[in-house]
Automatic annotation (TrEMBL):
Family: Belongs to the UppP family.
Alphabetized InterPro entries for the sequence: UppP
The gene coding this protein: uppP
Known EC number: 3.6.1.27
Name of the protein this chain belongs to: Undecaprenyl-diphosphatase
Amino acid sequence: MTTIQSLTLGITQGLTEFLPISSSGHLILIPKLFHWPLQTLGFDAALHLGTLFAVLFYFRSDLRRLMIAVFARKNPSYREDRRLALAIILGIIPAGTAGALANDIIETRFRALEVVGANLIIFGILLIAADFFAKRNEQKSANSGVGPMRALIIGCAQIFSLIPGASRSGVTITAGIFSGLSRANGARFSFLMSIPLIAAAGAFKLRDIFGSGDISVEILPLSIGFISSALVGLIAIEILMKTLSRFGLAIYGIYRIIAGSLILLFL
């Protein structure tokens, strides 16, 4: 793998893991557009570890409070944080279970560009609808938290994000908004819930590496992929969190519809 390839894929992973435009879809699309060979499992693991670092660093204060809340059960000031920690655990169960059971099927049967294109359009339309819904209900939902039922609804919706082109962040933010969260609260919960799932995805890649016996390491492309996905991931989270209230989500939905249409028409 060349430096340009690893840098391009690292930037792609960092941007699309957190912006609601589908990382898996773009990581299928980019190599096919440039006729690059499929990236190795080790490189995929490096990309996931990079974006994991990005979200851990960005939400380090939130994570610190959640960790304290788990152990400070008698402290009433951490009650909302304990509630959020429970919601995150409940939210990751449906997609985590589905991913563990259906990972091989998804990797072999749903990686076609037609699937990516269709999902970009379908979930782009849903994202625009969610943005319109959020604008009408923003004041009412601004202070709403994530309870157990809402967490399970978002978690069940997240199962769809396992299919390339859907977008994990897009699906969870959309489900959060339709369940009554504001755009900002939906994005924050989506990113916090992504931490164990990104870690699990990286762990699965590492398991596959050692299971296949292919443990050859190319230090330079792995390093470039990790660093670029981490840095760009941080920027992507910052962009989304800072622009949600001003620009909303519709711009990402429009991009998805255009990109999906071009894929179906020309690729």
